[in-house]
Amino acid sequence: MTGTRRIDRYLMERWLGRGVGYAILIVLTIISIFPLIWMIMTSFRQQFDVFGKSLIPQTVTLDAYTFILNEFHFATFFGNSLVVSVMTVFTVVCLATLSGYAFAHLEFWGKEIIFMVLLGTLMIPPTVLLLPLFLQLRDFGLINSQTGLILAYIGGGLAFSVFLMRSFFRTLPTELIDAGRVDGASEFGIFWRIMLPLARPGIATVLIFQFMSTWNEFLYAVTLVHTPNMRTLQPTIFTMVGRYSTNWPALTAALTLSILPILIVYIFMQRQFVAGLTAGAVKQ
What we know:
Layout (H helix, E strand, L loop, with lengths): L1 H42 L19 H8 L3 H32 L5 H10 L5 H14 L6 H26 L2 H9 L4 H12 L1 H17 L2 H6 L8 H6 L9 H11 L1 H19 L6
């Protein structure tokens, strides 16, 4: 009887602990997603009914979405952000995979020194680099151009991406590289045909991180690009905040549409993303 009571007590404590844990997680989840729900619901409100008593609007309207698409020219700025983000992510992923493989499995002079210098750039706040970067892009004639903005994003995100890809490539078995060399494959052939297909989780991790940081970036975008029609989405949305009044339904509608690309990228790559984050945890 004593053993049975101990088992029952253990099971009760276990289920009680789980229940408390789940309750805490549910509360934290509700707190986390409430601003998102409020933003989406506000985008369907009328302008005079923004701060109503209920979370669900009394009258559902699409006036805010019609305004930002027709009068605010949301599609133009959305396209600018999409072009800048895609070009930045593509370049960073290509350079990071090549560099990460080289730092992980190739031997060359000064490899560790170069990698440490590269990591040292992660300790520099982006705001400190803004003025020298602006002057350098001005000397090259790249101020007020999307090309200059893309180059700034590539330089800012490459170090962290190389660090991630190097860490991921080090988790892959080196026996595959040795087998490829024995078979007479070139170093690039080993990278392209053997290691790169195995690095898809790491690539997905880099892609999601880089896309999020580029899509949501504000400071460089508002400083390096001045022509209104060439600006990306985030600085343009910020202009919707008025000094004395703000069209909250239009603002929240623009914010709601602006998060769709990040959700789409994450939904399609979430499995690879999770695998990339946990790859190093199971290596002995």
